[in-house]
């Protein structure tokens, strides 16, 4: 094909001055087009990296890492996670990125081309994406629920709700902090067992999950991109016509993607809000002690197989390994610096997780420090102040010696009050726990929601902070779920001609099936089922898929052969250290993790999950799928006193 300069010289007049003038003018156009092309390509690469980082953050940093860290002793889990992140997290993330960049196909065809008889790896990734999309949609629903409640001038989680009927659940709000009560009682309407309430849906959660899947459906059928999918070129026609011989300029223009920019903006907004939360929480009582506890490491805890399982599983989960999304993304992205990108994604993921965990640890220590007798003192002081102001009658005045008695006697005094006095006394009680709480009295995926609702309450104009925070969570949740769905949609459209001819049919099937499949998580026991999915099923499946990927590339196709192929593609050899890791470090590590997971499934001591129970205190563990009895590792209370119980499978 003739260049633009040659064509122009043939068509120009034969005079030497004119020819020289036009030649110089065209050269200037080419220079301008090249600079513009480089600018757009660099901007697109930056946006791709930011969206990859946003996907990793939204996948597990916000709600998953903090409760795993708190469950496993803080510093021990952080150190173990960091060790596994370096040893096989970054190498495996780099492996998926470089494979997508090399073959430029989706996660189904990449394995069919590489090792045809292992083509089922791509379909296994789709199955995991389906599972993750089901229970990630309920996390969006929880964020929507909190967002809807954020528009009240007085945030509903700041105090015990004022109810119209008398029952023992009223006093349960005083046995724990109101933020935890709001989570279990108001947001989830949680049952006491995983077997109870599975067939009964919570109305507002059902409406929320319908709204989430409907938004995703609109996004898919209208072609909006709020995740990492490549979009059409939008370079001005004038710049394209200046250099028609440049295919890159015509096919990979800058992606003017407003929803994608909204996602990136929400990430920066989230960081600003989190930094404000951290600064404010540092002034809370017990902040220094909580941070010290967070970084304290007990080497003896490394003997726990459960610590290895959960740290390794979260490395695979948080980086999105085995989902196929990284391969799909890299097949469309430009640039060759995937070592730096993989390291950056892992680093930002870790820093974000530590930032969130610091805030949550401080809040938990604040709850524990202000519980028990300290809470009774605050409650009595507030009641006396309200009586002096005339808000409460004199009959609501506590006994003179109430501060000399155990904390439980204060609850007994409230329970013996007349009905018309019980309501306001409970409603005006400060947000603290009458029961003496330990520093680990709440766990599970809801820990982040309860803790951050407490952090929000510390600010003036708390409603605005709540709206900003939970709106950012909703946007990040939708974008993360969209990225997961791309791991389903893109491979199926390229593999089946029916879905290529009718792309909207696939969107309808996925969103309708996702909505129906997610309904189980909106039941009264839905949060318990979601915890078991997240803790047992999905990490194990991802480990198996990533192990097969590692075997296929490093041993069946051959790491040395792959290195040679990449030399012809990139023009330089891959760092031999990574091929060594793929062959002798990551694969044995994944097999060891898989063995530990199988061992834990058949161990004598069963797994657990936290449940809201009407006969137990605010304890700090969570029941299993076939729980048949209740036990608590700390003090017990008489029947009828709500709290959290530790159910275990026998």
TrEMBL record:
Domain of life: Eukaryota
Gene Ontology molecular function: any one: metal ion binding
Cellular component, GO, one term: plasma membrane
Compartments in which it is found: Membrane
Family matches, as InterPro entries: Na/ntran_symport, SNS_sf
Record's keyword terms, sorted: Membrane, Metal-binding, Sodium, Symport, Transmembrane, Transmembrane helix, Transport
Biased composition (Acidic residues): 1-10
Binding annotation for Na(+): 318, 349
The keyword Metal-binding appears for this protein: yes
GO terms (BP aspect): amino acid transport; sodium ion transmembrane transport
Tagged with keyword Membrane: yes
UniProt membrane topology term: Multi-pass membrane protein
Transmembrane region(s): 49-67, 73-94, 114-135, 201-221, 262-283, 341-364, 462-485, 505-525, 537-558, 570-594
Pfam short name (any one): SNF
Renumbered residue ranges of the record's region Disordered: 1-21
Protein family membership: Belongs to the sodium:neurotransmitter symporter (SNF) (TC 2.A.22) family.
PANTHER family reported in the protein's UniProt record: SODIUM/CHLORIDE DEPENDENT TRANSPORTER (PTHR11616), TRANSPORTER (PTHR11616:SF233)
Protein name, UniProt field: Transporter
Organism in which the protein naturally occurs: Panthera pardus
Gene: LOC109253078
């Amino acid at each position: 094909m003739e260049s633009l300069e040659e064509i122009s010289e043939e068509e120009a007049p034969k005079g030497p001055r004119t020819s020289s003038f036009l030649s110089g003018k065209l050269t200037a156009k080419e220079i301008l087009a090249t600079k513009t092309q480089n600018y757009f390509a660099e901007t697109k690469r930056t946006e791709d990296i930011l969206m990859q980082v946003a996907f990793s953050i939204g996948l597990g940093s916000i709600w998953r890492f903090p409760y795993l860290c708190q469950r496993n002793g803080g510093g021990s889990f952080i150190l173990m996670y960091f060790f596994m992140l370096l040893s096989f997290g970054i190498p495996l993330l780099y492996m998926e990125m470089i494979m997508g960049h090399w073959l430029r196909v989706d996660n189904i065809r990449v394995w069919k081309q590489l090792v045809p008889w292992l083509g089922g790896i791509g379909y296994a990734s789709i199955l995991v994406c389906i599972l993750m999309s089901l229970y990630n949609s309920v996390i969006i629903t929880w964020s929507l629920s909190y967002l809807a409640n954020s528009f009240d001038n007085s945030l509903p989680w700041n105090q015990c709700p004022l109810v119209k009927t008398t029952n023992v659940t009223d006093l349960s709000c005083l046995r724990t902090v109101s933020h935890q009560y709001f989570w279990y009682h108001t947001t989830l309407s949680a049952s006491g067992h995983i077997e109870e309430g599975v067939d009964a849906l919570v109305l507002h959660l059902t409406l929320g999950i319908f709204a989430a899947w409907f938004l995703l459906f609109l996004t898919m059928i209208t072609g909006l991109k709020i995740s990492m999918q490549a979009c059409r070129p939008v370079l001005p026609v004038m710049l394209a016509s200046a250099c028609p011989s440049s295919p890159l300029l015509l096919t990979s223009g800058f992606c003017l993607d407003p929803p994608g920019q909204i996602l990136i903006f929400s990430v920066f907004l989230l960081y600003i809000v989190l930094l404000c939360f951290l600064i404010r929480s540092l002034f809370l009582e017990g902040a220094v002690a909580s941070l010290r506890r967070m970084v304290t490491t007990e080497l003896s805890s490394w003997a726990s197989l459960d610590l290895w399982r959960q740290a390794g599983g979260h490395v695979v989960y948080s980086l999105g390994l085995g989902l196929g999304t990284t391969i799909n993304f890299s097949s469309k992205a430009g640039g060759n610096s995937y070592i730096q990108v993989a390291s950056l994604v892992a680093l930002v993921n870790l820093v974000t997780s530590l930032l969130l965990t610091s805030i949550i640890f401080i809040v938990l220590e604040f709850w524990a420090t202000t519980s028990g007798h300290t809470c009774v003192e605050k409650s009595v002081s507030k009641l006396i102040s309200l009586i002096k102001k005339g808000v409460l009658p004199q009959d609501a005045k506590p006994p003179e010696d109430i501060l000399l008695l155990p904390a439980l006697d204060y609850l007994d005094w409230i329970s013996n009050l007349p009905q018309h006095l019980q309501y306001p006394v409970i409603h005006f009680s400060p947000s603290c726990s009458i029961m003496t709480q330990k520093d680990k009295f709440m766990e599970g995926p809801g820990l982040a929601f309860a803790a951050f609702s407490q952090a929000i309450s510390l600010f003036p104009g708390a409603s605005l902070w709540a709206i900003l925070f939970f709106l950012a969570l909703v946007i990040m949740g939708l974008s993360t779920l969209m990225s997961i769905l791309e791991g389903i949609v893109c491979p199926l459209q390229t593999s089946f001609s029916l879905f290529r001819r009718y792309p909207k049919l696939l969107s309808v099937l996925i969103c309708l099936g996702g909505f129906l499949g997610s309904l189980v998580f909106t039941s009264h026991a839905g949060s318990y089922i979601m915890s078991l999915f997240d803790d047992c099923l999905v990490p194990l499946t991802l480990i198996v898929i990533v192990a097969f990927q590692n075997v296929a590339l490093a041993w069946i196709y051959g790491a040395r052969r792959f290195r040679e192929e990449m030399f012809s593609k990139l023009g330089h050899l891959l760092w031999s250290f990574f091929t060594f890791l793929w062959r002798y470090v990551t694969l044995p590590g994944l097999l060891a993790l898989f063995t530990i997971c199988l061992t834990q499934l058949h161990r004598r001591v069963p797994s657990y999950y936290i449940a809201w129970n009407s006969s137990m205190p605010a304890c700090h563990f969570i029941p299993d799928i076939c729980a048949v009895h209740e036990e608590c590792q700390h003090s017990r209370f008489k029947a009828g006193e709500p709290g959290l119980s530790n159910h275990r499978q026998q």
